[in-house]
Amino acid sequence: MLIAFLSHSDCGRHDTGWGHPEHVGRLRAVPRALREDPDLFGELLHAEGRHATEDELVGVHDAAYVRGVRDLAGAGGGRLDSDTVASEGSWDAATAAVGCLLDAVDMSIDGRAQRAFCAVRPPGHHALKDRAMGFCLFGNVAIAAHYARAHHGLERVLIVDWDVHHGNGTQALVEGERDIRFVSMHQWPWYPGTGPASDRGEHKNVWNVPMPAGEQPRTYVDAFLRAVDAATAGFTPDLVFISAGFDSLHGDPLGGFTLEVEDVVTLTGEIVARAASWCGGRVVSALEGGYAPDRVGRACVAHMRALAEMPRLGQ
Questions:
Q1: Structural domain tally of the chain?
Q2: What is the rounded CA–CA span in Å between residue 14 and residue 22?
Q3: How far apart (Å, rounded) are the C-alpha atoms in residues 157 and 153?
Q4: Catalytic residue at 126?
């Protein structure tokens, strides 16, 4: 099975500084770990994604906000909020991150690659319509979900998010669409303070799964999969997106979940199996959080092996 691995060299130009949790070392860890797995490396379709256009960003995000990010980067960068910075290269990085997702959607629809993993930064699931938030500039996955419907005529889209932080931006950008369903499992209480189970969105198309820190890994896995099954009862997705946040792994400096790499394999495999029955196995995954770079790299490789339905290395 052909699985695409998409990234873009410009994603490394988003310079937050080495003291910032979301630094370029997170991204560099992914190809470094992948080179240590030559079997998987050889199975992947390696592609450099394109840049999203301003028109592709506008509509999901406010035009004035999009121009503001572009102009701030063009002026050398600055701070977008207390956690989120832009540098001279951030516009190119952020448009490349979105563009990789859009290319992955195209590949999944035209048959070039049934599934894809996009190793991109900055991440996207906190970005709101008119402002940056939580290290995120644009809603990478949310934009791609709208693109899949508008450009490819897909009716129903599912987004699942296992980042340790609530995908508040993704929720805000998709909850107005009845046929986009969103599942977020996240630590509670925790940043950004949103995502109670009672928040189902205006069309009841949101399933928030707030969980305490420190539970056994299987507790998180079971809770997440129950929510996915609830979200898809009577709803068959045409395409599945994964917001793959690896800050849900045990020991991440910005989270208190206890998942191990093998749990990432389980979650991925369960989504792949469900997608096979829903939509011919079409899955597009994107890197969100994860702030222990070497562990992120290993988890990404295991995630891609599971997307490709290859046994975990060493098994």
A1: 1
A2: 10
A3: 11
A4: yes
Provide the residue range defining the domain that includes 216: 3-307
pLDDT for 2 equals 86
The strand order across the sheet containing 44-48 reads 44-48, 3-7, 115-118, 283-287, 239-244, 157-161, 180-187, 206-211
- Residue for token digits 């290859």? 310
Tokens of 107: 């590949």
- Domain-located, residue 168: yes
What is the Cα 224 distance to its own chain's centre? 16
Phi/psi at 174 (nearest 5 deg)?
A: -120, -15
CA distance 304 to 272: 11
**CA–CA distances in Å: residue 280 to residues 96, 185, 216, 233, 236:** 27, 25, 32, 18, 11
Instruction: Please measure the distance between the N-terminal and C-terminal CA atoms of the chain and give it in whole angstroms.
Output: 19
- Give the predicted TM-score (pTM) of the model: 0.98
pLDDT at position 307, please? 98
CA–CA dist 77, 74 (Å, integer): 7
Q: Which of 126, 146, 165, 186 is catalytic?
A: 126
Give pLDDT < 70 ranges for the chain. Answer: 1, 314-315
- Residue 297 is assigned to a structural domain of this protein: yes
Predicted confidence at residue 312, as pLDDT, reads: 72
β-strands 44-48, 77-79 pairing: unpaired
Q: Could you tell me if residue 315 is inside a domain?
A: no
Question: CA 216 → CA 21, 131, 213, 248, distances in Å?
Answer: 26, 35, 9, 12
> Following DSSP, what letter does each residue of 150-210 receive, concatenated?
HHH----EEEEE--SS--HHHHHHHTT-TTEEEEEEEESS-TT----TT--TTTT-EEEEE
Distance CA(26)–CA(293), nearest Å, equals 5
241 within some domain = yes
Q: Measure the CA–CA gap between 28 and 36, rounded to whole angstroms.
A: 13
Q: What is the CATH number of the domain that holds 233?
A: 3.40.800.20
